[in-house]
Amino acid sequence: VNSPTYLEDQHQLGDSLNQCPICGILFGKEIDPNRHINSCLDDFERHDSPKEKKDSITPEPVTTLATKTQNKAESSSSTALQLLPNRPTRGRYESLNDKETPSNNDQKKASSPSKRAKRKCPFYKWIQGIPFVVDAFSYGKIEKCEGYFLSHYHSDHYHGLSSSWKHGTIYCSKITANFLRQELDINKKYIVALPMDQDYALNSFVNVCLIDANHCPGSVLFLFKVFRSDGSTVRHLHTGDFRANPRMCLHPLIRQPENDILDTLYLDTTYLNGQYSFPAQEDVIKAACDLAERCVSGEQGKNKSKWLYGWLGKIDRGNSDDKMSTDSVTKKTNSKVLIIVGTYSIGKEKLFYHLAKRLNTKVYATPTKRRFITAQENKQLDSLLTDDPFKAQIHLFPMGQIQEERLSLYLKSLSPHFTSAIAFRPTGWTFKKSSPAISSLATAPLEQITSPPVDRIVVLNPQKSSIDTIKVYGVPYSEHSSFRELASFIASLDVRRIIPTVNVGNEVSRQKMGAILQRWQNEKKKKGIQLVSYPAEEHW
């Protein structure tokens, strides 16, 4: 797509979706799709600590008032993702039947609340031909499983883990291990924190390597290498949740043709849909930083049309991540403007880190949020934190509480130090491309999908507001791969078989994803495989 790429203002997805992309529930007339999707986002990725009650985000002066008005929303509940039935293992390291598919009756039984504890682990959570599973903790003790892998500490992946866990060894990154011990109090004898970027021998038949997944702190890809008795070797890559970038394809243990073909790719297909072609994280971060800088310096307020309709500007793709992180505001800022960033317990760190560096300010977070940040063992983040809300111009807020009424109460509690606020709600779900070119991406050639835009214009528009002192901006900042990034990742790798791991709850979704992936695979066979060109290793 060689024309400029536009990100239009926030769109309501209810007009185009009939199924929740997170939990798989079908929308009926009685369900508000947009409210349901936001609720799912908050439920699945909030990861509140089970050890204690949630922190109140409201400072002492209005704690009581905030408590009384705590919740008029968030009434919709999420439905657990319907999982495919188990594919049994024939032997210790024998291949599984590639053609096995679930029946509708099996799915109904698997999703029945009364039989939830008896569900079998679905085939796509098993690594092909070996007795290890990934993100499969909600099935109790799994027969013939010799090790449980956890890709990252998000609740929809670790669900089922608790301090009473005793079913087997949990393999994960060091940061994720910190969360398991700190938040779930899991006995350390069951946790093995694996090193990054190097092979680790699970036994004499299987090695595994952990690679940064560019999703959230501690998130990893799992690269399994299986040594067969006939002397051959097979390789399986499980992405967990990831934001694909060229650096993954350039990894010494993945890069091709230096390394063998990947026999199986277990793929995060969260955004395997042509409408989700949001810009690179680096571009979005720069747009948010530019907007925040304009607001705190007073430039944004000088022009009412800019304040009302948002910031519009071209993104300089030549700015590197390092330059962005060290570029701080040199002029005096207006301390009356508060910047609020919606986050989960873990995730969105890049956004608030770069905002803080650009504005040269501290970051305020609740004790629980600070505990999660400290567990990441990131000295750069630690140095930005403060427990005094008046010493920080950036405050972290629970994603589900980025609502005008709550933000207004919070701002009043900090008056007169702060008199206005802009809030960022960073997520990719409520943003989509709407041009005719984007609607045809689902059937476009792989070469067209992966072609970089000549230019990218990012528009950050505030939501409609009835409160003059509060402006809420939806930001297309996602920690999952966009449609174009998924295409670029697959186009860059020689893979025999791709297994989707997200949005697999119904037959229609599986067929649509399967058709896209198969077409891409066929195109690669005809035109060959080479790494898709990129402006920086951090993004396509």
TrEMBL record:
Any one cellular-component term (Gene Ontology): nucleus
Principal subcellular localization: nucleus
Record region (Disordered): 45-116
GO terms, biological process: double-strand break repair via nonhomologous end joining; interstrand cross-link repair
Biased composition (Polar residues): 64-81
Top-level taxon of origin: Eukaryota
Biased composition (Basic and acidic residues): 45-57, 91-109
Gene3D superfamilies named among the record's database cross-references: 3.40.50.12650, Ribonuclease Z/Hydroxyacylglutathione hydrolase-like
Protein's recorded name: DNA repair metallo-beta-lactamase domain-containing protein
Native organism: Circinella minor
Species classification: Eukaryota, Fungi, Fungi incertae sedis, Mucoromycota, Mucoromycotina
